[in-house]
Every structure is written in structure tokens, then in C-alpha cells.
Amino acid sequence: MAQHLSEDLLYAIFLHALPSNLLLTAEGAWHEPKTIAPLNFSLVCRSWRTLVLSRPKLWSEIRVENEVGWRMHYHCRFDWSVIRKWLFHSSPALLQIHIYTKDPSGHLTEDLLQLFIPEHLRWNSFYLRADIGTGLVPLVLKTNMLRCSPPLSSLSLHLNNIGRTPLVYVDLSQTVGDTCPLLEYLNVDVGAGVRLPQCRDTLCLPRLRSFQFKSAYHNQDLEDLWCILSASPKLEDLVITCLKQLAPPTPNRDTVHLPRLSSLTLTTSSRNITNYLFNILICPSLSHLAFRIYGPVGIEVGDKRVFLEPRHIYDFFLRSGSGSRLEILELGWVGGWDDGDPALRDLLFSLLNLKILELRARSLRRVVFEMLSVLSEAPRNDQKPYPCPFLSEIRLCYEPPILDWDSTEEAMDEMIVSRWKAGNLRAVTLKFPQLYHGKIKERTRIAECIEEGLTVTEESFDYWT
């Protein structure tokens, strides 16, 4: 029956078998390459072989992974003829490359890059994740430069390594003026760096819609980040993770206006970086903000260790004019919250259309639950009845306090019940330490709300994660 199918129909069927999943075994050999599409189709009959060899796109989606074995700990020579076959038959089609290696010595990743980099003018998407290090030989690896040339639209780099310098650089030095790169998605994660034009202000990324940046090196600076953001007027999704103290930017830099940005995720361990980013960004269309503090925040000599970030977030929304548009807010602080800070109250009361609120902290005290509760009595004068009136989902992750435990739990129950009776709350997610057994669903008032339709999810987390 298959012999009577037209070439176009066969071609469409073969496309559904992609990508080509190439697995390098622990022994250093490729796992049954003759069973991998489209090579397997070419072995059926002469007509199928002719079809497969005449359609380069069938060879253009390449996925490479490996098993970990003793050969991976050394710089052994592998048989790269299989990958070369795919690259040869795929020409001149655009390539979609996905590489995920577990590479103790780093040399497997290095060799793979040397195979694919010469084909960079055919890259449509390139994804590389490599877990590098803990090998039996010292890591002495070559630094590779990846050019962001058309037609590349998506580039993602994540290299876990024990080295102190990036193993791969994203080369943006030629993306200036009228070159019009097609890059829409860029992820510069651990183990990767960025090379900018000599005159940084000439950088141009007119189509970039999603940018993820994770800094793990002291020599990276905020100036690089500012240049990329300033060159990306169509950015819609931005994720910034800074776990090291970066070099300070050029003083008095202009603000960065991102009119289309709808989602911002910021994870940092430095108050200076936090304040800098909230001060330079203007995002009038923001609907989702996730802000997390990772580890103890570095503070200047003489500063008090207080929770200052709500004021900066409030001012950021005020400057951007996006507070009334925000629908999702996620706040995380590993050291706890300064619950008495009036800025937190000001922030919550300014979010008139917030739908989802997530709070993660070492401890959440009674005042936070009271702040979020619906008042049973009419407010006095011009006082607003309660913050975030359209809140439909609340997510809380915290460690219940040892002191004042009963009153804190009662305040949390009142917050949930009053919100439910106000008519908008639909779901509550509570995460507590594994040793804590709150039995939230068994409490009388909460159980009544559940019977009426409220969804309550109770989960546990490990102290050490």
C-alpha cells in the first residue's frame, strides 16, 4: 500500500518522524543509527531512498544526547561520521540543532561545537546544554564564538562548568545598523558570555522578543545588559538572574523603555543590582512580575537589613504606569519579610487588577494575612476596603512561626475565608515544611469553603532545597 502513496504524502509523513535523535552510548558508539529517521526510511526501498536523499529538510532537525561512560572522562576520538552524514544531506536546508551532553571532561561538547559552528550560516535554532566538569583530567578547553547571523532566530546556551570563564560567547559584534538580525529568542545562561560591538550603542536587535540572561562571572557587567535591553524595543519576555556582584554600569545611563514587555522575572542576590534594574526599566505593558532574592542580600556598611524592595517595586510601577495592568505578582525573599514596612501595603493596594499573588518567604507573620483580608466592617473615610479586589488565586510558601502560631493560623484562615466570601477567590496553594502538618483542609471554616467550590492545595517542601 505504501508504494502507491504519492511523494508529497510520503514526505509529509516522514516530517512527522523528526527530529533525528542521535544518542552517543557510554561506549562511545552511536546507538543504532539505522533506526533513526530519516535514514531508516531510506533503507526500505529505492524509491524511498531517492525521496529521502532529495529532501534536505528531512535531515535538518538534529538532536544529540549522550550516555555517561568512562570514555567521556577522557579526550577520546569518537566517530563523527554519523553527524557529518546528516549535515551533508541537510544542505542547504536551515538547521534546527538541539544538543544536551553530560560531559565530565568537556571535550565531547568542544568536538560537537567544532562540527556545527562551520554551519552557522544555516542555523535557524541552536540549543546547547552541557553539564561539564568533575573529569579525571584538568579542563583546558577552547573558547568558542557563536555568530548570530541570519537566519538564526533562536539561540539558547547553558553550560554548567567548574571553570571561571565562559566556554562559549554569543557574538553580537556584527548585529549593528541595517544588518537586521532575525534573532527572536536569546538565552545566555551559565557558562556563556556575550561579545558586543566595539561601539556598544550601535547594537541593534529589532526582532528580539524573549531574552534570558544569567550571570555567574564577576567580570560580566551591567553595561552589557543595558546595551542589549536598549537595542531590543520589541522585547516581550525578560528573565534576569544575577547571582554575583557585577561591575557597575556607566553613570547616568538613560532609562530603558520596553513598551511591549509583558513578563519580567528578576532573581538576584545583590541589592545594588536590584535597585539599578528597577530604576532604569520602564515597562508600561507589564502584566507579570516575578521578583526573588537568592541567598543573603549584600548591603552597604551602615545599612540596616530591612526589606526595601517593595518600595522599589512600587516606585517602578508608578514610573512605568503598569501597576493597574499587573495580573500576576510573585515575590520571594529567603530571609523573611519586614512586615511592618508600609511600602508592602502601598504596593498591594496599588494593584487593582491583580489576579494571582505568590509570596515565598522564610516566615510570613500575621500582619501580612490581616493586610490581605477583607474587612468585615465598612472602611473609614477614604480608606480602601482591601487590596487586590479581583484576586482569584493565592500561593503561599513559608515556615509557620514558632511564636504566635495560633494567632497567625487564625489570621490566615480569616484571609482565605473572607476572600472566598467576597466572591473572587477560586484557588489557594499552601506550601509548608515537610515536618509541618497543618491539616488546612480539615479546619472547619476552610472545609466549608471547599464544599462550596474553593480549591485548596497543600504541599510540602524540603528545608534543604
Cα-based radius of gyration, to the nearest Å:
27 Å
What characterizes the major β-sheet?
Answer: 15 strands, parallel
Indicate the CATH topology. Answer: Leucine-rich repeat, LRR (right-handed beta-alpha superhelix)
Give the strand content: 25-35%
What would CATH call the architecture? Alpha-Beta Horseshoe
CATH class value: Alpha Beta
* Rough outline: globular
Low-confidence stretches: 297-308
Question: How many β-strand stretches?
Answer: 20
Average pLDDT confidence is 83
Descriptive account of the structure:
InterPro entries: LRR_dom_sf. It comes from Schizopora paradoxa. This is F-box domain-containing protein. The protein has 465 residues and is α/β, with parallel strands linked by helices. The protein has one domain (58-376, 385-460): Alpha-Beta Horseshoe (Leucine-rich repeat, LRR (right-handed beta-alpha superhelix)). It has helices at residues 7-15, 39-42, 46-54, 81-90, 107-116, 222-230, 271-280, 309-320, 342-350, 366-372, 405-422, 444-452, and strands at 20-24, 61-66, 95-103, 123-132, 144-147, 154-160, 168-171, 185-188, 192-195, 210-215, 237-242, 256-257, 263-270, 281-282, 288-298, 328-333, 356-361, 393-397, 427-433, 455-461. The strands form 3 sheets. The protein has a 15-stranded parallel beta sheet. A 3-stranded parallel beta sheet has the order 5-7-9, with no helix packed on it. It has a two-stranded parallel ribbon with strand order 12-14. It is globular and about 80 Å long. It starts with 6 loop residues before the first helix and ends with a strand.
